[in-house]
Amino acid sequence: MNWETVIGLEVHVQLSTRSKLFSGTATQFGAEPNTQASIYDLALPGTLPVMNREALRMAVRFGLAIDAEIGRKSVFDRKNYFYPDLPKGYQVSQLHHPTVGRGSLTITLEDGSERVIGVTRAHMEEDAGKSLHEDFHGMTGIDLNRAGTPLLEIVSEPELRNAKEAVAYLKKLHSIIRYLDISDGNMAQGSMRCDANVSIRRQGDPELGTRTEIKNINSFRFVEKAINYEVMRQREILEDGGRIIQETRLYDSDRDETRSMRSKEVANDYRYFPEPDLLPVVIDDAYIEAVRAELPELPDQKRERFVADFGLSPYDAGVLVSSREMAEYFEQVVAICGDAKLSANWVTVELLGLLNRNNWEFVDSPISARRLGDLIARIKDNTISGKIAKTVFEAMIEDQAEVDAIIEKQGLKQVTDSGEIEQLIDAVIAGNPDQVQQFRDGKEAVFGYLVGQAMRLSRGKANPAQVNQILRDKLK
Amino acid sequence: MALEKSEVTKIAQLARLHVDDGEAEEVARRISDILELINKMQAVDTANIEPLSHPLDAVQRLRPDQVTETDRRDELQKIAPAVEAGLYLVPKVIE
User: Is the pTM of this model over 0.90?
Assistant: First the structure.
């Protein structure tokens, strides 16, 4: 039996404003409980919301970045439900008139092919607080610091066909919000949270299957694992002749499984109605054009430019632009050394490897873009070979000195003096009479061995091109 | 359109309102009257009228993104029934 998977993602992005969506309370992460929960966020009687201008601008920025329709008139609604971390008894959200309407983004799959994924909408809403269920004498602790923080909920069309596409979509979204600088996108800290709607159907079936919603998946890896688990679970049920129940499920990363979250709850009925405390938010074309004019270069545009201007492969360019920090680092390196291809290799292989091994971000890199640029410049001008450069690179991790100083200090400068190289080669020829004879008898393969011997004798420092040339001349 | 007693019970539960069984009948009748009024209003031809989400003909005023509130936790927690370690305590929420 062939099954088709249908996935839609709802992604909550915490907007990085200084103050909350409807109050002037601070939004810093990690503050002491309830020190960022003012009378507004606690919903004390008589308090009224006043909307944050910057949050609106960030939402519009996002909308423009995904080519979406921008709501000229957005309306806030109350979504009513009762939970202790929601003091007002309703969440202010947008139901019928969101700030960002239909748009799309392009994802790149592992084989390099691309797909356009529709974004249904992105609406603005306020976050809830946090419930701490550790035991407080049989009670629950509530921290309302997060209550009222601005969120953008980005809803995709159910167009993703497997877990890998879902991850690619999420990563693309992450990259866009980082380029736009509207959120730090930190999944571990909850500034980007993902819910996945998953259903399966028999191949060719026009009807969508019953879906389940997996809540609050907090890493890219878990998104993939949670979806794969859920698809497998649904398939087993359906193949055994069972039925899928529409429900909310929670992904447990320790056990790598999803499990039902609320079973006894009555079907959600949020009784939405327009928020009477807020007037419609109206924006005009001039506003939209002003926001558009401030848009930075986005990942897709940057990738095209890297391919066109630097001659990079679309794959390498795609890797480099996937993170804004990496793209900026790369551009600084190129600006210094002037060789884009070498820079791309060093950034995506050596540097990225170093950062990943140590769990470092680009800001933590012990090797600055300027020093890496200097290092590559020394390969370009033949001061050192590419191989020796790796030795210098290793030394640069511990030593903050300038590249030239490190090369000098470690005596790694390439030998380009032909007299010196000739001496080396004479020694190799004298020391390997058998191989020299074999070469002269026509065994070309021995040549590489002799070059290797000369390089070893120079401890890697001899210029390989010169070694080749001089050795060949001498063996004639 | 008349509302059933059972629907009143469900709405009351969603809104966390206590409606006595004896009251439910009367509440159902009163809400039904309101729905009746809405039905009458639905009959009015509104083809050429802009939908209205707010009775005031005005738009939302926006404020600059500035922190204007200070930490008043101690003061605010004085009026809470139970607090500990900076948290507001509520009856246990069971999932």
Answer: no
